[in-house]
Amino acid sequence: MILQKKVVVVMPAYNAGKTLETTVAEIDRSIVDEIVLVDDKSRDNTIDVASRLNLKVITHEKNLGYGGNQKTCYRAALALGADIVIMVHPDYQYTPRLIPAMASVLACGEFDISLGSRILGGGALKGGMPPHKYVANRVLTLAQNLMTGMKLSEFHTGYRGFTSEVLRTLPLHLNDDDFIFDNQMLLQSHYAGFRIAEITCPTKYFDDASSINLRRSAKYGLLCLWNGVLYLLARLHVYEAPMFRFRAGKARPGEGVPWNRPS
Predict the structure, then answer these.
(1) b/e per residue, 175-211, with b = 16+ CB within 10 A?
(2) 225-239, pLDDT tens digit by residue?
(3) pTM, to two decimals
(4) Total domains, the chain
(5) 121 neighbors 202 (Cβ within 8 angstroms)
(6) Which end of the chain is least crowded, N or C, by CB within 10 Å?
(7) 65, 63, 53: which is closest to 26 by C-alpha?
């Protein structure tokens, strides 16, 4: 807990058995009230390791994808009464030591979302980010900043913190279940007027860190650009894509109930 705000860490996990214990060891339990791990049908011993570490474990009966995993993570955190939710990847690519900083900027009320940026400190390449991924990150971020009017150093970090208000407001059920979920969520957040802070964050690339192949990376890049176009069209009142059709946490009539409520 920080400033009387309950902090819940969520971990979207898939085959994270080798790195989970190292990741959890760096979580400051004097700040974090609960840790929730959602296992997306791993093929290794992720669940066994999580159970041994006394984490709250939720298992998917089938693989729902990275975005689908996050939906379960956030739903579980809200059910636990979280005021602040920090997403930490269990593959140890991002250090959990920054959780207090990520949570503090939200708890003080100045920001609604905190992002751990690999670009701000200039350490992405030093941390082992492949040059082609670095270039793609910078190009896509520039393009989306131009389309949205945002000034983020990167759109593609997986280290994120949210207030419960953000998670209750955004219609996450309208978002994709794959990796593009992250990008859609940021665009929705800016569209809704939420305030975003960035914190410089070191990163580590190694064999056991998760990554996507070239084909899926190319698909992700194209979808980022397409979603940027959809954002621009919504802002110009030309066309409002379903993921931008929300007000005060409720989808418009006929588009289903809010994602975090039972149907």
Answers:
(1) bbebbbbbbbbbbbbbbbebbbbbbebbbeeeeebbe
(2) 999 999 999 999 999
(3) 0.90
(4) 1
(5) yes
(6) C
(7) 53
